[in-house]
């Protein structure tokens, strides 16, 4: 049985193929003649091995940035792909959080590598607030190109902290339908933060919430709820 062509690709008909043969270098007229190709120079140009992306230095790519449009398109496709395979908003946010967690583990590993290779005495934060400041500035800048806007502590719950982002880059080109107004695609960002905190030794549950204000309709709050063991360790350090 003849293999059917993929619907996303068009296939030339027999007549078009015959017309294409009429324009080949062997049968074309002088007016439409094609220049001959120097096969010797072409083969020499690509004779050497191509550079492998895994051979690049992780430190030399420190300032490399991804196109915003490319990232927006990719993330939009991720959200649409995930949306078709979930039962509700909570399930969608959970899956986005899981995807972000995988990214966060790699971000932490990369930043730790660069810190160790760029300093003779790399420092590892053992207190929560300095680690939170590092996420607010260094991690945010490494992932989104700018620091977050603010850090807040809950007044009623001592185990809750918040990272505020007035204009999340991840939601800049995301349009959420009205029937899904409670959805926060920044759950992906929350997963990144949760992975970094877990890797640094500050286990927590991290969620994302839409908190729009005047002038910042896309304002997002990343809520960090620390485990009890973290608070107990912080009390030990105070004594």
TrEMBL record:
Keywords: Endoplasmic reticulum, ER-Golgi transport, Golgi apparatus, Transport
Keyword Transport: yes
Positions of region (Disordered): 28-55
Protein localization: Endoplasmic reticulum; Golgi apparatus, cis-Golgi network
Top-level taxon in the UniProt lineage: Eukaryota
GO biological process, one term: endoplasmic reticulum to Golgi vesicle-mediated transport
Compositional bias ranges of the Polar residues kind: 31-45
Keyword Endoplasmic reticulum: yes
Any one Gene Ontology cellular component term annotated for this protein: endoplasmic reticulum
InterPro entries reported for this sequence: NO_sig/Golgi_transp_ligand-bd, TRAPP-I_su5, TRAPP_component
Subunit-structure text: Part of the multisubunit TRAPP (transport protein particle) complex.
Similarity-based family: Belongs to the TRAPP small subunits family. BET3 subfamily.
Protein name, UniProt field: Trafficking protein particle complex subunit
Organism expressing this protein natively: Athelia psychrophila
